[in-house]
Amino acid sequence: MVYPVIHPVILAGGAGTRLWPASRKSHPKQFARLIDGDTLFQRAVTRASGPGFAAPIVMTGEEYRFVALQQMADIGHSAADLVVEPMGRNTAAAILTAALLRKDDPEALLLVLPSDHLIPDQAGFAALIEPAARVAQTGALVTFGITPDHPASGFGYMKVEGGNAEALMISEFVEKPDADRAADMLATGKWLWNSGMFLFRVDAVLGAFRAHAPDLLDPAKAALALGAQDLGFHRLDADAFGRCRDVSFDHAVMEHLDSCAALELDCGWSDLGSWQAMKETAPQDQTANGLIGNALAIDCQDSLLKSDNPDTKLVGLGLKNIVAVATDDGILVADMDHSPQVGQVVETLRAEGAPQADGFRRCHRPWGYYETLALAPRFQVKRIMVAPGAKLSLQSHVHRAEHWVVVSGSARVTVDEDIRLMSENESIYVPLGAVHRLENPGKLPLHLIEVQTGCYLGEDDIQRYEDIYDRVAPSQQIA
Questions:
Q1: 165 and 251 part of one domain
Q2: pLDDT one-digit tens code per residue, 333-377
Q3: Are 392 and 315 part of one and the same domain?
Q4: Closest Cα to residue 285, out of 269, 265, 270, 304?
Q5: Which of 126, 156, 294, 346 sits between 20 and 30 A of 310, alpha carbons compared?
Q6: Strand runs (DSSP E) across 34-190, as ranges?
Q7: Does 234 lie in the same domain as 339?
Q8: Inside any domain, residue 427
Q9: C-alpha to C-alpha distance for 415 and 402, rounded to whole angstroms
Q10: Domain membership flag for residue 134
Q11: Does the residue 180 lie in any domain?
């Protein structure tokens, strides 16, 4: 049977706090380089590309839109519908919005993929798409189940009740059972882990929303209708989208179906939802230690050591069942059994006002990135990278002056009426209150050092006059 072109829906709006300090709200795990090679987001896009696939629909948040765009470009994917969610409303609203985007093609197939899962066996995943598509063409909502190999309490479960040669039938969903119940469920052999991946026809999923979550339809339709195209993104209307109930697709729809179809997926799937899960996917030494980055284990057992900084050597000595993760500005040391509770660490740091709770020293921007090298009262030193062809906004500051030194690349600098080209080892002073702009006219990245001086050095001390990235909301008043 020939099935229609499949439209991938990549869910890429999660904040990713469970892998702190390597994943944080400002740059969550789907976009972070947790493992060698492409990011999880890039792998998800690649997984659903090629013959038989349309350009993806990427559902992401305001703060991640340019990161998603750049990471797609880095792997050669320039065509996509990038939909900007003004706030998080969980997976039901995101999936419904994607389905409404394709409502004029009711028989089209949507393949929903979380962007933060790891699937090492891409061929095994691809082999399931054709049988899943055949089942979905009948009007069934298809999900993918994982055979559990231990009684995990952090996953959702689906109960298998018969089926046919192509698909199993799921009759019940249980969300994150406690350890004892998970063990009992595992012993029956009738339960699968819920992977959060789905395949269905547009008309079938819209019909399921009308039957089981009709309250989401009007605000989602309004969010699309009142939204606007913006620099290649489709920005949803904030007021309308904010009226969508914050609920998962499983709770809103799947759990209310009399039955749904499932295919069993055996491809090394992991949701990387904890450091324990990361340890299980990392390269192992002879004593079952996972080592990632600049790390060394001596007389250690069943531990995970990860250092993201090439200048920081993380050494474990005599450790057992420990996770130790080091970044430039945060270190986590925990018993492996407590790794699923890392989210509590983030909440505690937020309560303390610690900047490490949500942000990194390196802050990604649509034009590149900056990172703080030194910060003290009345001065701050930053390293700035501006991508080829990119430019910062035309702006001024009320409380600080800046001094720029070009380290590599070329820069076009505007300071009031003065416009000049600068190259390596040249510098310029930007007085307090001066209207200025930094651009990279070259074909190589521009790197420079910025020294700020003044009584207030916050990122909200900015007045914009022009910005090619259309960052106009008060919450976006950053360089």
A1: yes
A2: 999 999 888 999 999 999 999 999 999 988 888 899 999 999 999
A3: no
A4: 304
A5: 346
A6: 57-61, 81-85, 109-114, 142-146, 156-163, 168-175
A7: no
A8: yes
A9: 11
A10: yes
A11: yes
User: CB burial class (10 A; 0-12, 13-18, 19+) of residue 404?
Assistant: buried
Which pLDDT does position 476 carry in this prediction?
A: 42
DSSP symbol at 172: E
For residue 69, what are the domain limits? 6-265
| C-alpha count within 13 angstroms, C-beta hemisphere, residue 99 | 28
Q: Tokens representing 144?
A: 């993918």
Question: Is residue 401 classed exposed, middle or buried when 0-12, 13-18 and 19+ CB atoms within 10 A define those classes?
Answer: middle
- Which of 265, 291, 326 is where one domain is finished? 265
Q: Are residues 221 and 329 in the same domain?
A: no
Structure tokens at 324: 């130790």
What is the domain-level CATH number for residue 121? 3.90.550.10
Structure tokens at 140: 């069934």
Q: Which residue has the tokens 């007389």?
A: 299
Terminal CA-to-CA distance of the chain, rounded, Å? 53
32 half-sphere exposure, CB direction, 13 A CA radius: 27
What pLDDT, on a 0 to 100 scale, did the predictor assign at position 165? 61
Distance CA 179, CA 310 (A): 39
User: What does the pLDDT read at residue 1?
Assistant: 47
- Same domain? For 366 and 290 the reply is no
Q: Which of 352, 371, 394 is the last residue of a domain?
A: 352
Q: How far apart (Å, rounded) are the C-alpha atoms in residues 275 and 304?
A: 8
* One domain for residues 259 and 318: no
Same domain flag for 129 and 195: yes
Q: Which residues of the chain have pLDDT under 50?
A: 1, 473-478
- Round to whole Å and give the CA distance between 450 and 10: 37
Residues 255 and 330 occupy one common structural domain: no
Domain membership of residue 273 (yes or no) is no
| DSSP 3-state of 373 | strand
Cβ proximity of 98 and 89 under 8 Å:
no
pLDDT at 4: 80
State how many domains the chain has. 3
Q: What pLDDT, on a 0 to 100 scale, did the predictor assign at position 473?
A: 46
Q: How far apart are CA 207 and CA 213, in angstroms?
A: 10
pLDDT score of 369: 93
